[in-house]
Structures are given as structure tokens and as C-alpha cells.
Write a structure and sequence with these properties.
0% of the residues lie in helices and 50% in strands. The protein contains no helices and eleven strands. A hairpin with a 5-residue loop joins strand 4 and strand 5 (45-51). The protein is globular and about 40 Å long. The relative contact order is 0.32.
């Protein structure tokens, strides 16, 4: 099995920045693509961003393009999400996700989930 543990969430003012981390442990050799989803209060979970195994391909939801950056360090089994120019509508629980092979774009592509970290952006 694979365990994913997120960290770095918190309260930030609009326009500010946060950096989330997700550390993987266990059978990490089974992980291929990784990504982040988020779930705002009263809404469904939505795709935010994904990164390929080597970190050479990245893709983003339109709502975060140009503001968020995903990266990964395979030596540390960690993926990062740098979030800049945060908006109140970015408030959500952010979940780390990993797949054994599929490019992550929907929840159906995910084999492993973290428990989430809360990001709150005040106006």
C-alpha cells in the first residue's frame, strides 16, 4: 500500500501564498503520476493539477493556471503545490493523489488518496 500525507495548509489572506507538500511512503515504487484535488465546502471534489512521473509534464485546471505550480522530488517521494495570488474561492480541503499508471485528470484515475489539508483564504 501507499500512504500520502499532506502538510502546509492554513489561513492566508487573499493575494498571499502557501506551499503544500505531500509525502509518500510505503510501496512508492508503484506510483507513477501524482496530483492535487480540492473540495470546497458544499461542493464536489475537483481536479487542480497533475504531474508526470519524471516531473516533465504538468497540467492545471483553468481556475488555477498561472497561479499554482506543481512539482515533485522523486528522491524524497514528495510532491509540492506552490499556490500564489490566492483567492477566497481557493478555500478548500486539498487532497494529494497518486496513480499507478494513469495520467491524473479525474477521480477515477486515482489509486491513492491523502487525507487532505485545509486551505482557508480570507478576503
Amino acid at each position: 500500500q501507499v500512504q500520502l500525507v499532506e502538510s502546509g495548509g492554513g489561513l492566508v489572506q487573499a493575494g498571499g501564498s502557501l506551499r503544500l507538500s505531500c509525502a509518500a511512503s510505503g510501496r512508492t515504487f508503484t506510483i507513477a503520476n501524482m496530483g492535487w484535488f480540492r473540495q470546497a465546502p458544499g461542493k464536489g471534489r475537483e481536479f487542480v493539477t497533475g504531474v508526470s512521473w519524471r516531473g516533465t509534464s504538468t497540467y492545471y485546471a483553468d481556475s488555477v493556471k498561472g497561479r499554482f505550480t506543481i512539482s515533485r522530488d522523486n528522491a524524497k517521494n514528495t510532491v509540492y503545490l506552490q499556490m500564489n495570488s490566492l483567492k477566497p474561492e481557493d478555500t478548500a480541503v486539498y487532497y494529494c493523489a497518486a496513480s499507478r499508471g494513469s495520467v491524473i485528470a479525474t477521480m477515477n484515475d486515482v489509486h491513492y488518496w491523502g487525507k487532505g489539508t485545509l486551505v482557508t483564504v480570507s478576503s
